[in-house]
Amino acid sequence: MIVVLKPKISAKEEKAVLSEIKKLGYKPHVMRGVERTVVGAIGDERKHKSLETLTTWSQVEQVMPVQKRYKLVSREAHKANSTINVRGNIVGGKKFQVMAGPCSVESEQQLLKTAHAVKKAGATILRGGAFKPRTSPYEFQGLGLKGLKLLAKARKETGLPVITELLSEDHAELVAEYADILQIGARNAQNFQLLIAAAKTGKPVLLKRGLSMKIEEWLLAGEYILANENPNLFFCERGIRTFETYTRNTLDLSTIPIIKKESHCPIVIDPSQGAGRADLVVAMCKGAVAMGADALLIEVHPNPAEAWSDGAQQVTLEGFAKLMEELQPFITAAGRE
Ligand code: PEP
Ligand code: MN
What we know:
By secondary structure, the chain is of the alpha/beta class. It has two domains: 2-64, Phospho-2-dehydro-3-deoxyheptonate aldolase, domain 1 (Alpha-Beta Plaits, 2-Layer Sandwich); 84-333, TIM Barrel. The protein has ten helices and 14 strands. The strands form three sheets. An eight-stranded parallel β-barrel has the order 7-8-9-10-11-12-13-14, surrounded by seven helices. The chain binds phosphoenolpyruvate and manganese (II) ion.
């Protein structure tokens, strides 16, 4: 930790800070500048009490951590990019991966039709929500277990692994029985007990960024997965709340190079929740691929106008096939397959 002292404090006040630092188990290293004095408190922050209480002292200006608060997800902990094997699909490696399917599983016919179409167009993982986090309690809440069973059927027919959202700790074992990747939604991104329950299933976890989550908070939420002995974590940017209302959310593509710099875990972009508009999805996908994303999560529906959730942002089956074609040169240019 770095402790910055206020300018013009007395020798006695400085000494009191130094003895408190020692009392808490750190070795103070004093650096005197022209204007003010800075103290480096040397010691393992994981083993000693936090020095943050010093911020309440009148002679202290600031207390700053030197080490990052997230460790296991950090690039320092693991220099190489992590790859995650999802039923033989390696995410985070050379092959670019596309997860696609409806926002919600609505019926057998809707899901199977979509699953076959996205597979034919080149998607490698099937998405579909069975438990839906809806803003209003009067909106479609998902088919639940029936939806999970339909996802398993679609996987059997197409061979595509399945990603679906885990909404509640109570459902962790059940959802993990059917899913190949557990999706933690934006609204639950800091539901720490849910994160622990998801991690403990042993299934790969895709962690969406919360609606107003800072990058550090997102990385720390991801840390819960790795800290609970599950190394298979994807970060997924899906847009954040800003003052802008032209789009449903503001898709923050800067998270791609930031996550790549800070973490070894793969980064996935969801342009569907991100823009909230089907007409913007292709451009967002191209941008994400060019910027180094490892995968996309795209909502696709046979008839978006009649979708039971998120109709405005879902692309049609034909639209998805065209998108995949348009994306190919960007995938190649990004050095992916
Ligand atoms: C979804 O993927 O359909 C969804 C609800 O996502 P988010 O949690 O990002 O809103
Ligand atoms: Mn959706």
